[in-house]
Amino acid sequence: MSRLKVLILGGTTEATELARRLAGDDRFDAQLSLAGVTRAPRAAAVPTRIGGFGGAEGLRRYLTDNRIAALVDATHPFAAVMSGNAVTAAAAAGVPHLAIVRPPWQAGPDDRWRPVADMAAAAAALGSAPRRVFLTVGRKELAPFAAAPQHRYLIRSVDPPPSDLLPPDTEVIAARGPFAEGDELELIDRHAIEVLVTKNSGGSATAAKLAAARTRGIPVVMVERPPRPAADTVADADAALDWLVARHHDAASTRREV
Ligand code: NAP
């Protein structure tokens, strides 16, 4: 039986999970691609390549040269450039494409969320009076907060941010989820946090901070997701596996017909 060559664009829990499922399945020959932004990424269950492709044209060439038969975009909901390139490159190479997009978090009746469009709007939403801010937006998007130096920041990211990008009154915690609600409450209390800033990443690994903010009655500045290009989309790795099984079936049927 011929194996379906699959490229997973990763950097998320869903990508790692899908790689784990495909690794033990002899219908598939899968590889994972990472941008290389995390210093010590989690070990993957399938062969992994690291680094950009060189835009949509570079990815198109990669798909063609490596005879990739299915592309699964399992990048983060905020990785809009890569997701756009994936749609363009898959169409140009004639490769079936699927995106895994985890559902966004939804505010409940006890949540005090302020939705904003981007990081500049998030920094502005903190206001001019000094506040103690828990900032969990990733280390590459701190510039708007450096321009709001009146606040005291507790910044959490997987790798520590470069110190020259930090606002003056900042404490950094390098940590990778999943996080538990009890630990988030302890952090909020210890640092007397008054407001949380987060991207609407969705998923369970980092949702405990929202529950903790709700429990303490703390407002949340919620950065909404960037727009995505139109594409076939599923919500999780299970559904992506179903889609790949169908692609494998299609490929086997086509081979029988020729
Ligand atoms: P981005 O702005 O959409 O992508 C920037 C560039 O990074 C892309 O044009 C591409 O370079 C390269 N790239 C991104 N993902 C790649 C992948 N899986 N394999 C190879 N190259 C990749 O994305 P980003 O926000 O910088 O995110 C980078 C990575 O971190 C993604 O894999 C994403 O899943 C992960 N991540 C992002 C966030 C977030 O909040 N943005 C959070 C958690 C994890 P070329 O144009 O040269 O191909």
Sheet-strand content, in percent, reads 15-25%
Q: Whole-number average pLDDT? A: 95
**What's the end-to-end separation, in Å?**
15 Å
- The best one-word shape is elongated
Q: Helical region count?
A: 8
Ligand inventory reads: NADP nicotinamide-adenine-dinucleotide phosphate
Biggest sheet: strands side by side, in what order?
A: 3-2-1-4-5-12
- The low-pLDDT segments are none
Number of separate strands: 12
**Which secondary-structure class do the elements indicate?**
alpha/beta
Major β-sheet, in short?
Answer: 6 strands, parallel
The percentage helix is: 25-40%
Rg, Å, rounded = 20 Å
Give the helices and strands as they follow along the chain: EHEEHEHEEHEHEEHEHEEH
SSE map:
Elements (H helix, E strand, L loop, with lengths): L3 E6 L3 H11 L4 E7 L13 E3 L4 H11 L4 E4 L6 H14 L3 E4 L12 E4 L2 H7 L6 E5 L6 H4 L5 E6 L12 E5 L6 H10 L4 E5 L8 H9 L3 E4 L9 E2 L2 H21 L1
Parallel strand pairs: 1-2, 1-4, 2-3, 4-5, 5-12, 6-11, 7-8, 7-10, 8-9, 10-11
Helix pairs in contact: 1-8, 2-3, 6-7
Characteristic key phrases:
258 residues, alpha/beta, 6-stranded parallel beta sheet, 8 helices, binds NADP nicotinamide-adenine-dinucleotide phosphate
Summarize this, please?
The protein is α/β, with parallel strands linked by helices and 258 residues long. It has helices at 13-23, 55-65, 80-93, 119-125, 143-146, 181-190, 208-216, 237-257, and strands at 4-9, 28-34, 48-50, 70-73, 97-100, 113-116, 132-136, 152-157, 170-174, 195-199, 220-223, 233-234.
